[in-house]
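Sequence, please.
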């Protein structure tokens, strides 16, 4: 897959991911330099389909440090996602009909050196879902700890 640049860990905690897609990102020269330096934040980002095109909104890519301000980019501008037409149509249908949300999951550089984003169709979790998930994770951790203690004896 390549080098992972940034992950949206909060997305997996707050949403149940039903389906994932790989999308290319349309970036300017200074943006890709900042992405390769890991100056990216997915914290407030979300995706939407508008006029037959997919866009990522709220993705923060820090300005490139050594570039003059007039040649640099705006950190939180809307950026286009590159997807196949049938994928865009599927995203549009599922967000309208089922009430799902398009959430960015991670940004990475693939083997060819291109910036890619993994997005997911997600359904919001209720607080009791999150609590159950945390309790299950703690139970698995306790069981693994007990098994490791038993092997040491």
């Amino acid at each position: 897959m390549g080098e992972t640049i940034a992950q949206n860990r909060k997305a997996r905690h707050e949403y149940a991911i039903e389906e994932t897609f790989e999308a290319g990102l349309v970036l300017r020269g200074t943006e890709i330099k900042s992405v390769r330096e890991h100056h990216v934040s997915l914290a407030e980002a979300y995706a939407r389909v508008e006029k037959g095109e997919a866009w990522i909104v709220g993705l923060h890519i820090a300005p490139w440090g050594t570039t003059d301000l007039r040649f640099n980019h705006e950190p939180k501008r809307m950026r286009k996602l590159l997807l196949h037409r049938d994928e865009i149509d599927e995203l549009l249908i599922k967000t309208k009909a089922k009430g799902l949300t398009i959430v960015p999951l991670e940004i990475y550089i693939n083997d060819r050196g291109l910036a890619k984003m993994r997005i997911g169709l997600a359904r919001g979790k209720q607080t009791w879902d999150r609590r159950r998930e945390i309790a299950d994770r703690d139970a698995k951790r306790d069981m693994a700890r007990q098994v490791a203690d038993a092997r040491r004896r």
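The chain has a mean pLDDT of 84.
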